[in-house]
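Field: COMPLEX_INPUT
Field: COMPONENT_COUNT = two
Field: RESIDUE_TOTAL = 1053
Field: MODE = joint
Values follow.
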Amino acid sequence: MYAFNYQRPKSLQEAAQILAATAGAKILAGGQTLLPTMKQRLAQPECLIDLAALAELQRIALSGHALTIGAMVTHAMVAESADVKRVLPGLAAVAEGIGDPHVRNCGTIGGSLANNDPAADYPAAVLALGATVETSKRTIAADDFFKGLFTTALQSDEIVTQVSFPLPAKFAYAKFPNPASRYALVGVAVAQRGGEVRVAVTGAGSSGVFRVPAMETALKANFSAKALDGISVSPVNLATDLHADAAYRAHLIGVMAKRAVVALA
Amino acid sequence: MTTTGIGASVRRVEDRRFVTGKGQYVDDISRPGQSYAVFVRSPYAHANIKSINTAVASSAPGVLGVFTGADLANDRIGNLICGWAVQSKDGSPMKAGAHPALAQGKVRYVGDHVAVVIGETLAAARDAAELVAVDYEQIPAVVDLARAQESGQPQIHAEAPRNTVYEWHLGDKDAVDKAFAGAKHVTRLEIVNNRLIPNAIEPRAAIGEYDSGTQSYTLYTTSQNPHVARLVLSAFVGIAPEHKLRVVAPDVGGGFGSKIFIYAEETVCLWAARKVGRPVKWTADRTESFLADAHGRDHLTTAELAVDGNGKIVAMRVKTKANLGGYLSTFASSVPTYLYAPLLSGQYDIPAIYCEVDGVYTNTAPVDALRGAGRPEATFVVERLVEVTARQIGMDPAEFRRRNFIQKFPHQTPVIMMYDAGDYGTCLNKALELADYANLGKRKAESAQKGLLRGLGFSAYIEACGIAPSRAVGALGAGVGLWESAEVRVNPVGTVEVLTGSHAHGQGHETTFAQVVSQRLGIPIEQVSIVHGDTDKVQMGMGTYGSRSGAVGASAIFRALDKVIAKAKRVAAACMEVAEDSVDFNDGVFTARGTNKSMGFGEVALQAYVAHKFDPDQIEPGLKESAFYDPKNFTFPSGVHIAEVEVDPETGATRIDRWTAVDDFGTLINPMIVEGQVHGGIAHGVGQALLEGAVYDGNGQLLTASYMDYAMPRADNLPSFTVAMTNTPCPSNPLGVKGCGEAGAIAAPAALINAITDALGHEDVAMPATPMTVWRAAQRARVKQAAE
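Field: COMPLEX_OUTPUT
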């Protein structure tokens, strides 16, 4: 690890000010990717702005038809929250399946979304649920947030503050883990709300999380695993690595989508 | 009668300090004034070093020294050695290139040691290491083992044309060819034994220290065999003579073979301590462990088995290319030869076996012994051949094995080994019963209803361990003897310290060795302490590897205890004023036969030291004895493992549903510890079969250099094991014990692949059988079934 300055602002406003004023600053929001990367000297931010002291970002709130989760809420808090388990149990299950206890107790939803790892679980859930990402500057729809590998719509001086999930009728996430890292080799999130069905895939895309319109149309007409028969995802834009080539990933998307739907039957 | 003797499942006494964080590992040790070493490593698999500029790094803040191979050469420090000479079939000696501790003009794998920076702090050394400017001239890398010997491939060492270290063979080729010509059925398999990275939980570490007052060195190091390290560093590397070099291997967190070897980093720390006048510490980070610990396995094999019309095996033919990496590590040459081919007879009466092995250099990390070392590779060949043959000739795999089992002992195989004892049929029957083999068909049908494919696989393994005897291994090329030493020091109050040349790094010697003492002397193990891992305390020893500590190390203790008891009897006889031959010793009490006189063990110990009651011309004061024990033979543990899996054909995921292990380790000193060793061994073998595999790309970059890509077995990959024993005592050592630490890793891979291939109905499943690999095989099986 190279030397860096460490800031621990007391308010969101202060954090935003430091971020805007400091060249080479990075937000520390759990650090479960950032810190290992720094330890390996693969990243060298000059300044870390730790959001850990911002109580306002650590709340889970339920209002009307939406569940709002603060950016600094850890995966463990989501997994254990009675509110989340009651109104959106599939999301608690997503959080419980992230990493290991260490990661779940440090890593946060805001950190995960801002990092947008192509094999992370939350992006699939956020995209399938049609959530909105709220920041220090604006509100961004999930469809507009994820922009590619480790890339989001966030500007350099923008901080994720909370994520708002409209409550679905049904939601499930089926993950096939990478045997080594246990990140998603393929993870498929399926959500149904009103007349709409959204299917989002993580782990597989060569440019990150994406939706599968053909599956959405089929499930909208008939919400059953059988409706997905014969729908194949093209391997063209899927990732190939040691653990899975694009063809295998394409196949697994179909299998995991069906399993998510079966879980909701 | 003591309750802590041989056969008692005594809780491990060392675990108190391990689980309370009181273990003392090398990295826990801080020496006054210590500095820190960081190695500059090659980013290329194969390159000439045109120049190294250390000037900027040397003048960086907090830097005490920057050294390269040229500095080692100036100080006439010798190269690292390979301690086992293997001859090619034409009689020529193996062709080994030099293995310098810091590169001399060339690098041969990614992670090769190019320079070392010694800093006041670790951070200073790290920063300065980035300032060492190395001008490399890249050479195409030789990575593909299958093609490494082809003409036109770049040459890694000038000494080894065609990158070939040796072309070795064993067995009677003519007899084998003749048997194959007359065989009813021949099974032929192409086998890849995947390359593994050892992944001990504690990374390697060292502190080198030089005392200018006494002109002596101390090396604290993560070693399985500190005396061998001292021998090599003295006699070959030449840093200091043995009486001026102390090697301490304190608590060590797992070895699995990878800490047997004398590596560059530890050597450099010791040498550099004198250069900078300060202790020099190095602890590998996990990336360094992946890159530069000696890897294991990595064979390409063509194997054939010939059977007659009665289902009897008549011959076996094996051709193996063994990857040895970029340099020959300490015992690299022996692993794919003498630790491999002599096990190809398995548990079977095979009249003729012929095996050829080419040892090959590639631009990858050195490959050496890893848990099982040659024997897992051999067992995989034998047990895949046997299973597939049974399937091909339409015979039940258990029946085919039974029909070919060796029945009479001792049994001379055609490949060196003389098996001393065993009872393979009993073991198989017990395993079949515990695994409920009779109802497999029913379970397969139940799985099929869930859309899952169930399969069962056997592995009837044998291994040769308790590695010894000295004369035998010497005849096969070993540079050292493989005995073990023990010294038993009885204190005046009757407590006992045992100094052993074995080294514990997870095995539980402090418990099991104490149990042997407890049994023999009739004292509880609380009165016994086991001392190991320090060349200043233990005079000499050969260390722990090859499942040798029970058979050889504990047997040495047994022999030293014989001498202690004999001496104590003489003391007791003098004290009780009876003839020496009338004294009996049982359960800690000396009694004079035909009298009512008796003395406790502690009382006799005290009398031995106060020396008031015997004639010093007749009996020396004190009670301390030592023994060097060299067994007559290897030990031959054997067993049957049965794996039962469910494969999900949609995803290729394999779930192990049941695992039955019936092992014959002879006498058990501590059944609980033995069972634990079996569990760990199976987990290791499951890792190889299902998860682990080191992968280099075409340029020699290690793609699996972290846990993001290298899959270690975890608890949820494993079922609850059914472990049982049969007990055929080993006739070759006084305790009747056989080695148990490697057996699981030796047995498991074949059992698991046999189970998966049974489930799929398709033999082409490579290790590691990852979900993608199994899914592809399931697709091919489906196509094959459709065609039929």
